Amino acid sequence: MSTPLAESTAPRTSGTPAAPRPRKEQSQRLKAWATRAPLLPALVFLIVVTQLPFAATLVISLFDWNAFSPDNRHFTGLSNYSAVATDPALRESVLTTAVLTAAVVVTSVVLGLLLALLLDRSFKGRGLVRTMLITPFLLVPVAAALMWKHLLYNPEYGLLNGTLAAVAGLFGADAPQPEWISTMPLMAVEAALVWQWTPFMMLILLAGLQSRPHDTIEAARLDGAGPWQIFRYLTLPHLRRYLELGVLLGSIYIVQNFDAVFTMTKGSLGTANLPYTVYQTFYEGHEYGQASAAGVIVVIGSIVIATFALRVVLSLFREEVSRG
Amino acid sequence: MSSLTAAPVSAGPTGDRVLRRARRRNTALGLLAWVVGLVFVAPALWMVLTSFHSEPDAATNPPSLGAPLTFASYREFFAGRGGASPWPPLINSLWASLASTLLVLVLALPAAYALSIRRVRKWTDVMFFFLSTKMLPVVAGLLPVFLFARNTGLLDNIWLLVILYTSMNLPIAVWMMQSFLADVPVAVIEAAQIDGARLPAILTRVIAPMAGPGIAATALICFIFSWNELLFARVLTGVVAQTAPVFLTSFVTSQGLFLAQLCAASVVISLPVLAAGFAAQDKLVQGLSLGAVK
């Protein structure tokens, strides 16, 4: 244990123990296990708690299993999947999930980029503005969703209609008082989520902006490049991977969103996304087999996104490692 | 665009004019940033203000900005006038968040050590295995966990949440702490070794002080995620182990004119997260991007 650095500076290749004597080989193996030991508790814990339940979900998804008739439980092969694929409500929730995720991610990335550009300069109170901007992200998601539903969207006394009425009142007119959630349910959920996720995107992109190579930009400006050219040909290419990272991490978190849908609409009015539908199918509908099949579909969707996400993280990570 | 902050320094009247124009534009953009910041924080500020209004003042149209302030809603909330006391759920949340954060640190610190300072073979593969578990949607494993809990009598037990929150945060913590520990310069550790320091001394005297702030930020972020969690808590707890977010969702249905009290409840329940978040502000990006962005 007294030479912990041998490996960090020069990672061993797989065939290193070329020593002929078994004694030495044994001590090598012992040393390798000593290195691995600190890793094992975390690894075992994570496999047991996250991988086993998922394996169980896979198995359950192959059974016809309703909690109200447990004696009827039997193997049905892939019929839950065909039931899920042909159920119009479930198909709609797949579409809802895609629309919700895409709308929230794209809007919050664009807004986040604009905010990051605004904040990437020195002005009075910059720290305070930054703090104000990240506040939405630091409210408990349930509290934020309730706030939007009751405090802002409420048609009678919500802040949105209240402001409309107050502004129209200045001109002696009657303002329209829309019922936000019932007329545009998905938009209402999306707006609340955009408000919460824009700060996240801003933070990532701001970090990207601040890691730009300043000498290159200085050189470009001395060569007569304008601000737009610098943005288009230097800043944007540099930000590309930060944008990708924001999009992918945002997608992973928002595909899984449950809090906002559950709190604001209870999945009604066409806002039920897949996580909510899975929750409803098993918690209220007690259709264990079908819920599991839907869960597996969510996983497949996530794996597609995650594969891209991992690639982006990996490229940033490699750069970090090679620099360090 | 940050170029404007370092405007070219040149003598003469034209340079002066360029400088002045750049400065004016910078002021205008700074002002815009202020306006946008205020717009973003406005709903949250409105919630805080409403929590200090009386119930009739809270539900008016147009909104009553200047209504007299009162602590009534907070008193009502803590007294549990809505039918249930907020203390058990708050204590449950605190317990679940603190215990799981502690467990995360105990598991993640040695793992991060084996992935940064004394590296195992194929350490990047291990890192990506950790990350990939984070991408598995929570709902996918929910049903088996629920069935397991029901059959073993762990339903409505706060320890089940502690275990689940630990697994939820462990990958993030491993990634974050790996990047913080890898920042400790190899030369410093080598120097300590040459001076005859043993492993415990190196851990406590060399690594801990340098990686300390990062480890603290990791803990705060894990705390936030556990405190915020709704789905597991909603499905796996009932009366006894109910957490604050679940309490908040059930709070609404049991009330009549409730707006001010709802705001007070939301403010109280959000306060620990706000405090932890602002404390970890500098390292927040690194945590949320799983250490990919520094």
TrEMBL record, chain A:
PROSITE patterns, sorted: ABC_TM1
Topology within the bilayer: Multi-pass membrane protein
Entry's localization field: Cell membrane
Record field: transmembrane: 39-63, 98-119, 131-151, 187-209, 291-314
Residue spans of biased composition, Polar residues class: 1-16
Positions of the ABC transmembrane type-1 domain: 94-309
Keyword Transport carried by entry: yes
Principal subcellular localization: membrane
Disordered as annotated region, ranges: 1-26
Keywords: Cell membrane, Membrane, Transmembrane, Transmembrane helix, Transport
One Pfam family named in its UniProt record: BPD_transp_1
Family: Belongs to the binding-protein-dependent transport system permease family.
Name recorded for this polypeptide: Sugar ABC transporter permease
TrEMBL record, chain B:
SUPFAM superfamilies in the cross-refs: MetI-like (SSF161098)
Keyword Transport recorded: yes
Membrane topology: Multi-pass membrane protein
Primary location: membrane
Superkingdom of this protein's organism: Bacteria
UniProt KW keywords: Cell membrane, Membrane, Transmembrane, Transmembrane helix, Transport
Transmembrane annotation, as ranges: 27-49, 94-115, 127-146, 158-181, 202-226, 232-252, 259-280
Gene3D superfamilies: MetI-like
Recorded coiled-coil stretches: none
Location(s) in or outside the cell: Cell membrane
InterPro entries: BP-dep_ABC_trans_perm (IPR050901), MetI-like (IPR000515), MetI-like_sf (IPR035906)
One Pfam family per UniProt: BPD_transp_1
Domain ABC transmembrane type-1, chain residue ranges per copy: 90-280
Family designation: Belongs to the binding-protein-dependent transport system permease family.
Protein name per the record: Carbohydrate ABC transporter permease
